Amino acid sequence: MGLVRRFWHLPRREKLFFLESCILLLVANVSVKIIAFRHINRFLRRWSDRMQRAVPSNDMRSDIELIDLSLSRAANVLPGRNLCLSRSITKLIMLHRRSIPAVLFAGVKCLEDSSLTAHAWVRAGDCVTSGTLDLSENAEFTVLVRVGLRVLPH
Fold it and tell me: Which long-range contacts does 59-67 make (Cβ < 8 Å, 24+ apart)?
């Protein structure tokens, strides 16, 4: 009951962002598990191409922060484990819906025991938003996939 009460007291804008992130995160989770990544990649590239002509909103920084907060809340509430790829896909779509330039990166790095680990993260505006890793740790990954609008480095 506490979750419902907390949701009820959120401002309207935060409620809408939260509901959008829940729906998109569920769709992204299912998609990552049952659809080949080449199809997801093709969809995201087409989506990004359509968004190149859009004009970003004036309040880009607050939108990015609210998307991060909403996505974190949704990941905590929804059942199951949310992979960084699902979270990054959701974040990319939410950012592009608001005409915020963003790039999704997916990469791998070799661990000390010669195994590979993969990670996905999003760079939006002038900041990197990955959910669990910061920019210095992302630099260790070799980028294999880059999807989205070009973001100018700062």
Answer: 60/98, 60/100, 60/125, 61/125, 63/95, 63/98, 63/100, 64/95, 64/100, 64/124, 64/125, 64/127, 64/129, 66/13, 66/14, 66/17, 67/17, 67/21, 67/91, 67/94, 67/95, 67/98, 67/129
